[in-house]
Amino acid sequence: MAGRVIVITSGKGGVGKTTTTANLGVALAQEGRRVVVVDADIGLRNLDVVLGLENRIVYDLVDVVEGNCKLKAALIRDKRVDNLALLPAAQTRGKDAVTPEQMRDLVAQLQEEFDYVLVDSPAGIDHGFHTAVAGASEALIVTTPEVAAVRDADRVIGLLESKEIYEPRLIINRIRPRMVRRGDMMEVGDVMEILAIPLVGIVPDDEAIIVTTNRGEPAVLDGRSRAGQAFRNIASRLEGHEVPFLELEEGGLMARLRRLMRGSSAAS
């Protein structure tokens, strides 16, 4: 059976698409799935850095479509996680170096070998976006709870419908509960009401993810990272499992109850 092709997109830059792609790729591979992550941000690649694979690039996506190498020669296998591969973008070419038709053909080849093809879309809605979504049948919309990001995400949802991708799912990234309580950040419910698509994950703002990203170590490899746990939960939901949403605050109701129960046990 051909693999699932999922584009990770947003419209606005800087909302965490590439980090999301890397972490979901690792998490799905950890569940035993064969996964390839494709960096479609030609000219501004970063997925290789987030995965810590930047020093192993020999060929890239453009080399493949131009016939300079075989597809297998351009795939970089992650030595830390079985079943995970990266197809990097070219760094010195423009976004028009690959056409939507070429991307569609490339993705069709990858579907034959992998259970998941995760395509990291560039920001914006120009040629790069149209190339990235070509060949995808599913989409994950990543947004932060900010007005500008949500407005751009809404625009992208409309464009996806024109590409016959009708049921995108939503990931709200970098949410800060304290700012939400103060009214300085949009609530999850507000974002969902505006975008009106199913929610597949909420990722809390986590300083640890900045550290792990700079080290080329996706947060899902860190068992203590709350963001990493959120991404593992999203991967499980993509697999069809029912997983409760992560409690956003460590001081939330369930955490307070757990502390109270531990205190009662100690007293008895």
Automatic annotation (TrEMBL):
Q: Which residues form the CobQ/CobB/MinD/ParA nucleotide binding domain?
A: 6-218
Q: Name the InterPro entries on file.
A: CobQ/CobB/MinD/ParA_Nub-bd_dom (IPR002586), MinD (IPR010223), MinD_FleN (IPR025501), P-loop_NTPase (IPR027417), ParA/MinD_ATPase (IPR050625)
Q: Which CDD domains match?
A: MinD
Q: Which Pfam families match?
A: CbiA (PF01656)
Q: Which domain of life is it from?
A: Bacteria
For this protein, the parts annotated as crossing the membrane are none
- SUPFAM superfamilies referenced in this protein's UniProt entry, alphabetically: P-loop containing nucleoside triphosphate hydrolases
> Keywords, A to Z?
ATP-binding, Cell cycle, Cell division, Nucleotide-binding, Septation
Functional description taken from the UniProt entry: ATPase required for the correct placement of the division site. Cell division inhibitors MinC and MinD act in concert to form an inhibitor capable of blocking formation of the polar Z ring septums. Rapidly oscillates between the poles of the cell to destabilize FtsZ filaments that have formed before they mature into polar Z rings.
- What family does the entry list? Belongs to the ParA family. MinD subfamily.
What name has this protein been given in UniProt? Septum site-determining protein MinD
- Native species: Geochorda subterranea
The gene that this protein is the product of is minD
